[in-house]
Amino acid sequence: MLKFLPLLYFLGVILIPGDTELGVLILALLGFVVLVQRRAPGAAGLRSFQWRSVDSRLSLAFASVFLFKCLSMLWADLSGLALNNALWHLHFLLWPLVLLGLHRCGADQKDVERAVAAGLVVVAAWFLVFKLSGERWLPFEDAGSSNVGVLAQMTLFLGTWNLLALSRPGGNLASSDGVLKILAFVSAWVVIIASTRRLELLGLLVVTATVLVYRLRSRLTFVRLSLVLLGMLALVGLMVYLRWEKFATGFAELSNYFALRGKDPQVVLSSWGARLEMYRVGWLGFMDHPWLGMSAGARPYLMQAYGAPGEDVFGHRHFHSEILQTLVEGGLVWLGLLGSAVVYAVRQMVIKPWRTDRELALLALGLLGAYAIEGVFSAALIYGEANGVFVVASAWLWLQLRQRR
């Protein structure tokens, strides 16, 4: 029965309310039980998990996200806000327990990938049915996500995983698994287009082009590469056409911000105007506190000393850029520590297994890459749902990698 827990988790990432964070808690509790029972009589199966030093270092690398935010309370003006921020990232502290819990479940990779694909298909079908029928019921984006931004972010990762599984050498596209993954590939596009999110739309396009070029690299000629690039350009054109009003609005917001910011305070309240204003005040805050930053209690609306609007109209809790967020909260020290943690994770999960377990290494790269794309112009590690998915997915991938070493 336990093997169905990871399957249910990945099936419900964008489908079942509370799945992403409740799943972390359940897996962590299961991991705690495993930890307690390791020395109990008759627990030989549980003792099969041999904890290694690399597991400890990876656990510390992931937990550093939570730990540094807690540490920043020491220099925070509003320590309560810093603590709130840290608690949004409590998932990372549970990573080793989630790893043990997943080990106890023992789900098969093929089954997990079926669950990922099925979740995408169901949510896309949900949207299409209610869009075409005109029925007003629970909006599809409210299923397993708190907002469309989180929905699109998680769909970008799940779509990347499904595409890597779909394009894996030796797969049979005519089989039931192949058909499901093809439907899931289309579904990922449907969900992201329906979310109206520009960043994730362009991100999925970049991921699709990159995966196709990588998979076809041995058969690529200049003509074929040109055709792939032309196809991608055509797809970009189609996406812009389908969501032209969103792109046109974005261009207008950028133009108005630079032209009218000093004259019309309303321009900083638009989508891109707000982002640019957050970048401006965040950068100024970092420049005034370059080494340790302003703590995890920093918020855009608290930057009124730099001209930011008040909380009533500028109530954002993050700076819409993971790098800027890191610099504002912890300065160059935190950037260096977090960068070291990321480099270590990439080395262990991507670089080292590249020759022996390339497909798993690609999945790990897909996870890190999808979150990196999100972090360019948004918050990759702020919302609980996205943090939960990252913790469970990274722990599951690491479990597969360490079992094959």
Summarize the structure.
This protein has about 400 residues and is mostly helical. The protein has helices spanning about 5-10, 20-35, 55-70, 80-85, 90-95, 95-105, 110-135, 150-165, 175-195, 200-215, 220-240, 245-260, 270-290, 320-350, 360-375, 385-405. Helix 8 (about 150-165) runs antiparallel to helix 15.
Question: Overview of this structure, please?
Answer:
α6 crosses α16. The radius of gyration is 22 Å and the shape is globular. The protein is mostly helical and 405 residues long. It contains 16 helices and no strands. The mean pLDDT is 90. It has helices at residues 4-11, 19-37, 53-71, 79-87, 90-93, 95-105, 109-133, 148-166, 176-195, 198-215, 222-242, 244-260, 271-288, 322-351, 358-377, 384-403. It has one domain (4-246, 319-403).
SSE diagram, text form:
Layout: H1 4-11, H2 19-37, H3 53-71, H4 79-87, H5 90-93, H6 95-105, H7 109-133, H8 148-166, H9 176-195, H10 198-215, H11 222-242, H12 244-260, H13 271-288, H14 322-351, H15 358-377, H16 384-403
Helix pairs in contact: 1-2, 1-7, 2-6, 2-16, 3-4, 3-14, 6-16, 7-8, 7-9, 8-9, 8-10, 8-15, 10-11, 10-15, 11-12, 12-13, 13-14, 14-15, 15-16
Listing every helix as H and every strand as E from the N terminus to the C terminus, the arrangement reads HHHHHHHHHHHHHHHH
Helix tally equals: 16
Terminus-to-terminus distance: 27 Å
Q: Uncertain segments of ≥5 residues (pLDDT<50)?
A: none
Mean pLDDT: 90
Structural class estimated from helices and strands: mainly alpha
Taking the sheet with the most strands, its summary is: none
Radius of gyration: 22 Å
The number of E-state strands comes to 0
